Amino acid sequence: LETAWLLPVAIAILVWESASGTLAAASEPGFFVLLALAGPITAIPLLLFGAAARRVPLAWMGFMQYVSPTIQLLVGVLVLSEPMPLQRLLGFILVWVGLVVLAIDVIRAERRPVSQ
Prior knowledge:
Elements: H1 2-20, H2 24-27, H3 29-53, H4 58-64, H5 67-79, H6 86-111
C-alpha cells in the first residue's frame, strides 16, 4: 500500500528530473533497472514474512523476532570485531535465558492434553 501510494510521487519526480536533465538513471540503463527493482526486492520478503506469520503460533512468532538481532550481534562481534563489554554480554545472556524458559513453556503447553 505504501508503494502504491508513493508511485505517483515517484513518477512525478522521475519525469521532473528527466526533463531537467539531471536524472542519473537516464545515462545508465543498468541503474534504472536496479532502481525499478528496488520496490519489489523490498516488498517480496515483507509479503513472504506476512504470509508465514499467519501460519506460525504467536508465541513462536515472538521468539523468532529475537533471531535477527542475535544474528546482527554475532556478525558485529565475530565478523566486524565490535567490542563486547561485560554488561552487553550479560544482557544478551539474560535475554536468551528468558527466551529458553519461554520456549520450554511453549513446548510443554503444546504437549499438554486439553482438559475439559
